[in-house]
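Wed. Picked up where I left off yesterday with DUF1269 domain-containing protein. The coffee machine is broken again, so keeping this brief.
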Amino acid sequence: MQVFSIFEHSPSLELAITKLEQEGVTKKNIFAIPINESDETLKIFDSIHDADGFSFLDKSLALAVATGVVGTSLGFNLTWGPIIWGLIAAFIGFSIGFLWNICVIKLTKNSRRTERKILPLVILVVECEKENVKSVEFILKEHKALGVNTPHLNDDENF
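Structure written out below (tokens, as returned):
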């Protein structure tokens, strides 16, 4: 059977391979495939498929709501009415929040926006007997594998 796992290229990977060899898995039954690093740069705006955990518009929208509510309540006493003044205040609040985020991100080089350095990934494939699958999985998980899977050929849920 084959056991597939993913590791960051680190000493943990080397220790896992050494431990597998000590447990009786031969070198010809261990196959490591390095994955090339991505050259993609950090984007200011997140998409639905790619987010870095730092929202660019949260402060802007919250400030727009807050100032829109205040503008609406003050608009009852002003000439153009509450709807127009609420929209004007919401636009002003959104603009202030948006400019604030641009200043924080662009000018101060906010540390939360820096890219986290991810070590290159390695796919490790281990060929072993069916009786040894659990011990191989345990060794891989023990040495910080990001994921471990043993596909079964007759199992329809993997397809």
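Quick read: The chain has two domains: 2-36+120-158, 58-113.
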